[in-house]
Amino acid sequence: MFTLTLENPLVMLYVRLIGWTLLGYILGKLLPKIYTTYLGKALLFVGVPISIVSFLRQADLSGWIIIAPITAWVAILVGAGLAWIWIDLGLSDERFSALSRGITSREKAERTSGGDATLEQSSAWSGATQGSFLLAMTLGNTAFIGYPVSLSLVGPQYFAWSLFYDLIGSTIAAYSVGIALASRFGCATNNQPKPNPLISMLKTPALWSLPVGLGMRFVPLPTVISTGMNAIAWTTVTLSLVMIGMQLSQLKTLKNIKKALTCLSIKMLLTPLVVGTGLMFFGITGEPRLAMVLQMAMPPAFSTLVIAQAYNLDHDLTVTTLAFGVVLLLFTIPIWQWLFS
């Protein structure tokens, strides 16, 4: 049973999640859009790297921590596999419906005489929609939302499990599997060049911060510097939630709700349940398992919208999964804490 007091970590997490995100939403409506960009760059290039170094100095790296990135890749593959099964079922249902309406092969040939574009446009599972659906399974918000949730419920001692899951797992997967999926199901728009996966990865400061943080774990620092880094780290956690709210305020169109909820159910419910339960058979339990399950259950990252725009994927589905994913997170966190803590 959970005790609903302000001393409960879950209650404090919800106060922070809702309060700071709501503040960010209000600021996003009042301030020009460029301020969101400025805040995002400040966190990406300054706040997050310092946070990683600071929290790594406090983290416990004992045990089989290499399992964290392996788990991330397994979760991505499981989620993508389940998503592909659902897409195939949808396409099969469309074919069955077409046959039940008496569409003969000759009529199909006449309909597609102008190319496959006509048939694709009439399908609810166009290539762009499939790409956005699968992309949401690959890119979880394991940093700007995942870090605050993990730090609040698991604590800095086991933060390294979340960090390794994010940097060596989700981040690399985003710039490899994510870009590959977008390239397979979409095409670059005229005003958005295709991102280069390797360059994008090398330009991610968080990846460079990991070896720096590991190297500085046993380097003694003056109290003033250590305290300052810790203050910046926790400030970054708060500002990350504010930025999420500012980004949410800029989302406008919410369509394809049914597909979005199906996508989120697979990513945020089914996959964490399957993979999290499987970790028990490898001896991974307690706080480390909870840290990874929480990362698996994060909503899609806002970078999915950037990639969807760059590769001309289903923009409406991407926006809807982002918005509903953040809301669904509020209902799923207690489930994971109850099942896996």
Could you characterize what this model shows?
The chain has 341 residues and is mostly helical. It has a domain at 65-108 and 117-200 and 253-340. Helices cover 74% and strands 0% of the residues. The chain contains 15 helices and no strands. It has helices at 9-30, 34-58, 67-100, 105-111, 117-122, 127-138, 146-153, 159-185, 197-202, 205-215, 223-248, 257-279, 286-296, 303-310, 315-340. The longest helix is centred in the first third of the chain and has 34 residues, at 67-100. The chain is globular, with a radius of gyration of 21 Å. The relative contact order is 0.18. Mean pLDDT is 84; it is low at 112-121.
Oligomer: single chain
Backbone structural class: mainly alpha
Helix run count: 15
Count of individual beta strands? 0
- What best-fitting shape do the alpha-carbon axes yield? globular
Helix content class? over 70%
Outline the biggest β-sheet: none
Distance, first to last CA: 12 Å
Mean pLDDT, all residues: 84
Catalogue the unreliable spans.
Answer: 112-121
Strand content: under 5%
Note the run of SSEs as H and E: HHHHHHHHHHHHHHH
Layout: helices, strands, pairs:
Layout: H1 9-30, H2 34-58, H3 67-100, H4 105-111, H5 117-122, H6 127-138, H7 146-153, H8 159-185, H9 197-202, H10 205-215, H11 223-248, H12 257-279, H13 286-296, H14 303-310, H15 315-340
